[in-house]
Amino acid sequence: MKRIIECVPNFSEGVNLSVIKQITDCMEAVEGVRLLNVDPGKATNRTVVTIVGEPQAVCEAAFQAIKKAGELIDMRSHKGAHPRMGATDVCPLIPIAGITLEETAQFARELAERVGRELDLPVYCYEAAQPDKSRSNLSVIRAGEYEGFFKKIQDPQWKPDFGPAVFDERRGATVIGARDFLVAYNINLNTTSTRRANAVAFDIREAGRNKIENGKTINIPGSLKAVKAIGWYIEEYGIAQISINLTDIRTTPVHVAFDEACKKATERGLRVTGSELVGLVPLKALTDAGRYFLEKQKRSTGVSEKELIKIAVRSLGLDELAPFDPEKRVIEYLLRDKTNKELIYNSLLDFANETASESPAPGGGSVAAYMGVLGASLGTMVANLSSHKKGWDDRWKEFSDWADQGQRLKDELLLLVDADTASFNAIMQAMGLPKGNDEEKLARKTAIQQATKTAMEVPFHVMECALKSMDLLLAMAQQGNPNSVSDAGVGALCARSAVLGAGLNVKINASGYEDAAYVATLLQQVKNMEELASQKEAAILAVVAEKIG
Question: Check: CATH 1.20.120.680 for 343-548?
Answer without folding.
Answer: yes
